[in-house]
Amino acid sequence: MGSAKHERMGALKECSVRVMDDSYEVKDVLKSIINDIGNGKILSCVKSSGNWIITLRNKDDADLLIETGIVINDSTCNVYGVSRSFLTVSLFGVPSYIDDDELSEKLLEFGCKLKGKWHHNTYPEFPNIENGIRYIRLELPTECKSLPYAMTLNGVHMRLKHNGQTRVCNLCLENDHIMRNCPKYVCRECNSQGHWEAKCPQVRCFKCNNLGHKSFNCPQAGDDNNDHHGNGDPATGRHISPPKHANVQHKDQPKDEAMDQLPQTKGSAIETNETKRSKTRIQRQLNG
Q: Which InterPro entries match (predicted)?
């Protein structure tokens, strides 16, 4: 007896949907649903915890409302399942040469269950030209709270968005790590799992010629700052750059020749501070 009752309650739950906005009047909600599926198909409409919970007589009508949503007072309203987490997922930046089936296959790899077909948005001024936005209704995998913020297909990076979205790994959809730290990530250098390219044990650094890291992670990168041509500071090991204008007068160099080496300003009588300082240094040496 208890088992039969449990099965009946489960069946009613499968036939129930949620409208997540209790600001609508009950008459408006019921009129909208009746216009979509017909009269005599609603068992109950209950206001609960900020939602309208509507139980229908059959599951097909519930699935139809979840897939298409309803229009209440000229406003489109999403309808959600009570026991399932159906979402409207939008993709941005989708070129027209990417087929809907390719997008579906990518979402199926995540374990999603697709409901209905893809919808293509167009420009309001040009209703026959797509704007690269597509959306579809789907159910997330069990124990999965979100899809990643983006996905790549055929070299095209597309933004992915849905309600309640959080940061997750692009490969396994877990929320405790990012893709390059995912155990499922395959290194493109050695085709092994457990590390990413920059930490690959088989990659070779062109700076130190050692294995296990790339040049931007080289532990000897700091040595490049040392001077190897006699211009290093022996105390600090730092490179000493020559002055921008080596305007020191050489021995036996005439004064006029030394002054001629100074940078000249063309078309202007205004001397730069650097020129003034250089002249002052030379004048002091000549007078010294």
A: ZCCHC3, Znf_CCHC, Znf_CCHC_sf
